Amino acid sequence: MPTAPRRRNTAPPREDVLAAVMATVAERGLDGLTMAGLGREVGMSSGHLLYYFRTKDELLLQTLEWSENRLGAERRRLLSRPGTVRERLDAYIGLYLPAGHRDPHWTLWLEVWNRSRDADEDARARQAAIEGAWHRDLVALLAEGGSRGELRRVDAERYAARLRALLDGFSVHVAVGLPGTGRDQVLERVGEFVQETLAVAG
Q1: In the prediction, which pLDDT does 140 show?
Q2: Model pTM?
Q3: Do residues 60 and 104 touch, judged by C-beta distance below 8 A?
C-alpha cells in the first residue's frame, strides 16, 4: 500500500504575510493585529512568525517597507508621466496624503514612528531611507520646475523639507480624523500654500 505524501510545513511567501498585515490594519486597526491572529490568517503559528520576523516591531517595519515600495512605484509612474511640473507636484502631494481617516499605510507609519524611540540604528536607517526617497523625488521636481520657469526658483532642499513637514502634519490630522481636516480640505490648503510660494509672477 503506497504511503501518503508527507505534507511539508512550508511558510507562505513573505509578501503574503505582509499583505495580510496591511489588510488586518485596514479592517481592524492596529489593536486587531496580533501574532496569533495573523498566524491563523496565513496558516502559520505565532512562533513561526517570530522565527521569520523576530519581533512585532520588525514585522511592522517590513510591512511599511513593502507598502512604501508599492507607493514608490506609483510615485515614479506619476512623476514620469507627461504634463506640467505643477500637475506632477499635485500628483505627488495627492499620493503623499492619506486617503482618509484610518488610512492603513499612515496608521502603520504612525505606529512605526511611535516605536522608533526605542529602535536600533538599523531600523532608524531603514526609516530614513523611506523618508529619503520621498525627499529626493520632491527636490528633483522642484529643481525641474525652477529650471523650466514653471515654478519660482527656490532652494529645493530647504523648500522640500518645509513642504514635507507641512504634509506630515496635515497627514496626521487626516489619518486620526481630526475634525475640519478631511483630505479634500487639506488638499485645498496645501494647494494654496504651493500657489502662494511657488507660482511664478506674471
Answers
A1: 98
A2: 0.90
A3: no
